[in-house]
Amino acid sequence: MSEQINEQELVQYIAERAEAKPEAIRAVLKYEEAFINNAHKGAKGDVDIDGDELVDYVLSRPDVKLDELTVETILELEMDYLMDKGLAGYVD
Description:
The chain is built from 4 helices and no strands. By secondary structure, the protein is an all-alpha fold.
C-alpha cells in the first residue's frame, strides 16, 4: 500500500460500513494487493483489473472466511475511500 494511505483509517472506514471484522478486512486488502502486484501492467504502467477475477482470487485464499458479497463490499468501500482521498479513480 502507498505511504499516502493510512491503513488503520482505511480499515476503520470499511469496518464502519461493512459487516466485517478488521482482521478480515486486512486479509482481503492484503490479497487484493498481491493480485494487483501480479497483474499484467500496461504500457503506461497501469493495471486493468477484472473485479470478478479479483473477488474469486480473494475467496480462494484459505484464511478468507467471508462470502462473495462481503468481499465485494469491502473492495467497493476501499475504492470509495481512495476516491474520496483523491488517490484512485476509474478508467473508462
